[in-house]
Amino acid sequence: MPTAELSSVRIHYQLDGLLDAPVVMLSNSLMSNLSMWDPQMPALLAAFRVLRYDTRGHGESEVTPSPYRIEQLADDAAELIAAVGVGAVHFVGLSMGGMIGQQLAVRHPGKVLSLSLCDTASEMPTQAMWNDRLATARDQGIAGLVDGTIKRWFVGAFVARSADTIAQVRRMILTTPLEGYIGCASAVRDMSQTHILKQIKAPTQVIVGRDDPACTLAQAQVLQREIAGGTTPLHVIDDAAHLSNIEKPERFTQLLVAFINAQVAATRGVTA
What is the 3-state secondary structure (H, E, C) of the chain? Predict the structure, then answer.
């Protein structure tokens, strides 16, 4: 798969779909890679060109020395958009990817046509909790974080009935480079960007799993309230936790495609 040599990092990406279609860009969560979006790909490729990538320090992207900053990761995304030459994108980010999206829409507004912020937040309490996770990672490696991560990412009923999917997710977590995790987890720990949300001008939707313990419904409501004067739609997916795109792929994808189609239609002056 291709890589882009950016100013300070080599980023692995995948670009699929029709050349003339609107471009959707997908940004992964902490401890994942671009494969986390596999459930959405058939529906997205039916209507859009899709650019997905591994965040710095994750997947097959370069691992640079930690710590990282959310602003730095947003600049990576902006550089990748320019390097690939796709023009402005409909940006979709989940968890860390949504945090990156908030910064991207403020720092590089000309590159964002719309914004889907999924199971994410503008602040992540508490620093002590993140310091504990970083200490576990340094002492035990990524393996020391797997079980707790699975419990946060999925409701218990999904874990019980989806052994194959959970096994795949477990493998994805375990392939996360330790230094990349430390770098990105530090960025998430240190993030504080509620104050910038009012600067987001791109049409935005917020999606959250009702039972998400990592980026909660209350945190999603902050995004909804602060962006676009409270007119931003908030969609709550029942019986889902943090990786709602994997737990409830049909509902998640439906929300995603409908919103992006509406933005595409609006730019063309067509009623969606």
Answer: CCEEECCCCEEEEEEECCCCCCEEEEECCCCCCHHHHHHHHHHHHCCCEEEEECCCCCCCCCCCCCCCCHHHHHHHHHHHHHHHCCCCEEEEEECHHHHHHHHHHHHCHHHEEEEEEECCCCECCCHHHHHHHHHHHHHHCHHHHHHHHHHHHCCHHHHHHCHHHHHHHHHHHHCCCHHHHHHHHHHHHHCECHHHHHHCCCCEEEEEECCCCCCCHHHHHHHHHHHHHHCCCEEEECCCCCCHHHHCHHHHHHHHHHHHHHHHHHHCCCCC
Q: Are 102 and 197 in contact (CB under 8 A)?
A: yes
Q: Please give the angle made by the CA atoms of 60, 256 and 214, to the nearest 5 degrees.
A: 65
User: What is the C-alpha radius of gyration for the chain, rounded to an integer number of angstroms?
Assistant: 17
C-alpha to C-alpha distance for 266 and 102, rounded to whole angstroms? 22
Sign (positive or negative) of CA dihedral 199, 225, 228, 253: positive
Angle formed at CA 167 by CA 101 and CA 255, multiple of 5 degrees: 35
Q: Any idea which residue has 């994750």 for tokens? A: 58
User: Residue ranges of the domains in the chain?
Assistant: 3-267
Type of residue found at 140: Q
Using the structure block, give the residue that is written with the tokens 């890589």: 3
At 21-65, the pLDDT tens digits run 999 999 999 999 999 999 999 999 999 999 999 999 999 999 999
Token reading at 89: 């994108």
Task: Please tell us whether the domain made up of 3-267 is placed in CATH 3.40.50.1820.
Answer: yes
Q: Is the pLDDT of residue 272 over 60?
A: no
The model carries a pTM of: 0.97
CA distance 119 to 105: 17
